[in-house]
Amino acid sequence: MNKSHVLILAGGLAVLTACASASPTEPPPATQAPAAPTQEAAFSERCGDPSKLSQELYFYTWVEYIDPAIEEEFEAECGVKVIEDNFDSNETLLAKLQAGGANYDVIVPSDYMVQIMIDEGVLEPLDPSVITNLGNYGEEFTHQYFDPEQKYTVPYFFGTSGLAVDTNVVADPADSWAMVFEPSSDVCGKISMLDDERETFGAALMYLGYSLNDTDPAHLDEAKDLLVEQAKCVLTYDSQTNDDLIIQGETVVGHMWTGDAILSGSPDAGGKEGVIYLIPREGCTIWQDNLAIPVGAPNMYTAMVFINYLSDPKIAARNAEFVGYGSPNAAAYEFIDPDVLANEGIYPSSETFERLQWIEDVGDALETYDLKWTEFKAAIGQ
Amino acid sequence: MRATSGASLGTGGLALRLGKATLALNAFALFAFLYVPILILIVFSFNDTRTVARLTGLSVEWYSKLLHNRDLLTAARNSLLIALSSTVVSTILGTLTALGMDRFRFRLRSAFDAVLYLPIVIPEIVMGISLLLFFNLAFFPVIELASGTKLTLGLSTILISHIAFNIPFVYVVVRARLVGFDRTMEEAARDLGANEWRTFWRVTFPLLLPGILGGALLAFTLSLDDYLVTVFTAGTASPTMPLYIYSLVRRGVTPEINALSTVLLLASMGLVVLSLVAQRRE
Amino acid sequence: MTGSDDKSSRRGPLLVLPAAVYLVIFFVLPLVIVLVISFVERGRAGGVRSPLVPTIQYYIRLADPLYVGIFLKSVRIGLLVTGVCVFLGYPLAVFIGRSSPRLRSPLLMLVMIPFWTNFLVRTYAMKQLLGAEGGINGLLLWLGLIHSPLSLIFNEFAVVLGLVYGYFPFAVLPMYASIEKFDLTLMEAASDLGASLRRAFLRVMLPLTFPGVLAAIVLVFVPVVGAFITPDIMGGGKVEMIGTLINRQFGVARNWPFGSAMSLALMVMVVAGVLYYFRSSEEKERPI
């Protein structure tokens, strides 16, 4: 062991780093203002007032939640470069906004988080004169509990949290939570539930006939006992890889979000033929992700133009095709593949809509939820 | 003192020879344990569909996708740069600290010892959030007041936080090496006329090197794979590899990540082979 | 043996100063913010209620048997993981320390290299191996050693296995640092004097390499107690540890003050425990 040896190792690592940077990369957007403007773009009507647009737009969103081609087209058409950054949870998004110093222009919070953000005063009201496409969105997705005046957000994508079922094993599935709470012998031990105190407690509450947002401690205890009882048949509580598990055959029924369920049933995406998605008759969660602008955004006008751009029917339709979740943009439906529109899992019928419930913020009762959830987790641990 | 750390125990009894065989067996089993998941990882990088759950066929598409994935490559480069820089700084600071704490007694020594263990125990999310708050509520405003420059979160804040959690790890490893350190060599050197510096570089440092190297390797590894602290101290467009990969989890990790990991693996193996060859030449 | 102690009044602090200043600014000060948060009421969005409302309710809540139980479970898992890592890692460190000098660094790097792949894909690969439809069960079934798949994943066993895997190098590296400088001829000398291998090891090798073992124990036990991601993935959300609990407070539960109080309590207890262990070992195992 000698010094030249160490130098070789260090040198090798330096070479490795140099090689990695020799690959085609842009200079990383630094913390100061950017340099030369982008090329002369062909301005179209969808870009608003070109004199007010900035060079760049910071888009903070879930991963793979926008068709990259659309970002590139926005740049070509309007001369604005979209710089995308990703977060993995609403709470991380909130933490970064609350602590300040997060210079994003457009963010994508989920419904309950929108409500909290509006109350905390961290969202900028939108200007309908810029976002002219606001009217494209369906009634079921606008003026909801979290943004009743539709002042701060524009719907982006929606989904539900139902059950994915492998019909190769369960030939005759019932569209009910009983599938997971009173499982048959070939299902027991091969169930996955979401690892989320609101979603999973919600499933139990809805099965027991209560509201998803019930805060009565007695009802919560009932739900908790049900979950503890169910635990011996549950393989795992997982919100991330539950689709992989059903594909691999480790589970046969999974509590999961629409998009994951659909993907796990399409062989082209590596899924398994025969996996279907059901919305239980007792009801399930509906959630919606929305476009919003945080207070203090550096490029506010451009942000609104971008949001308006994404609300254009043709653009929204293409985006929906890429992302795979349901589009709340009613004007886009004529451009969406009819087979996809007919899929009840992605686009529930209006009667199914009656059964869907939004997860609303329960205020201080959240501490009770967390306490019960912790008790539940501690009780099932081996 | 005889420098015979590599002395064989072959002349001992059967017991010692058995000991040697058991050691080798144990080592082999452990390396197998460490590398079997890695093999799975490599195999799945050649999957022909986007899932990492089931092997459906073979293809190299993910490697070509990787080459064109600007974002991921930038993230990888950032991670390597940060890991290297934070390793260098924290190794120097950690080693100095270990020397200071081991060889000298001073006031506040025990208090500082306790402080040094805190970054090892603190849950990463707490460290991340505390740094986020600190940067935004205290650090940036102070710098702005003092010099007028307005800073924001970015690669530099990530680097600062990585150095912070790396220092104690290096410290603990080097400190372990220092305990019971035989000072006679150093004393001999000084008796022969060498000054402090020379003694340190020619005698102490080479003897410490395995400990320093161990600490550095640990720091590098911690920095390269850090997620929770990084996610809170990163800026709007300063991705590192773990940030990129973890954000994929919601939609599903694709074999592209396996491909990247395989590339890194092969590159590191290459370095190891290179250093072996270089040694042989001496 | 005490060569430079006459300069102790200046030298020590000087060497330690850079790291001390750095950590005070970028660690202690941020921690003070966390301390403040733990003593004020929770705001609806998860941060703090403003104006700040002082309270000690979160610390009091921690005394509840529910949380104490989770803490003890984490300690138990921590001790188990540490024991396995040290027990398996020590022979490996000896093996590397005894190899020819030019092989040592490459071997050490070989131990670390798996950890330069991404943590997530590594863990997924492990999950794959351990599943009911996975590689290990497949192999055992094929060999006829079992007749139905073993439950190897989404339980405490998997969590311990995952943690041992993840923290193994943290044990090997410091132990190697101590073992590498151990003069093996001492073992020969002991055997010449009539000691068995076991006696020679326990009376000669172990005490002299103990600082490395101690460091390994600290570097494994301390982070494992507060570990989050591995127990979450490998335990399938069924193995609740203090790390998962704390993370939830900063996540879905949106209760930063409670999470802060938990973290600070954890930190104080673990550091106190470790330092107490150090003091008592120092008294027993003083190296030459």
Question: Quick one: CATH class of the domain at 49-111 and 155-284 in chain C?
Answer: Mainly Alpha
| Mean pLDDT metric of chain C | 86
Q: Which fold name fills CATH's third level, the topology of chain B?
A: MetI-like fold
Put simply, the count of helices of chain B is 11
CATH homology superfamily of the domain at 49-111 and 155-284 in chain C: MetI-like
| Share of residues in strands of chain B | under 5%
Number of domains of chain B: 1
- Name the chain pair with the biggest interface and residue counts per chain: B-C, 121 and 112 residues
CATH fold naming of the domain at 49-111 and 155-284 in chain C: MetI-like fold
Portion in helices of chain C: over 70%
Termini Cα gap of chain C: 11 Å
State the end-to-end CA separation of chain B. Answer: 25 Å
Order of helices and strands of chain C: HHHHHHHHHHHH
Assign a percent range to the helix content of chain B: over 70%
> Strand tally of chain B, please?
0
Report the biggest beta sheet of chain C as strand number plus sense, adding barrel if it closes: none
Return the CATH class of chain B: Mainly Alpha
DSSP, total strands of chain C: 0
CATH architecture of the domain at 49-111 and 155-284 in chain C: Orthogonal Bundle
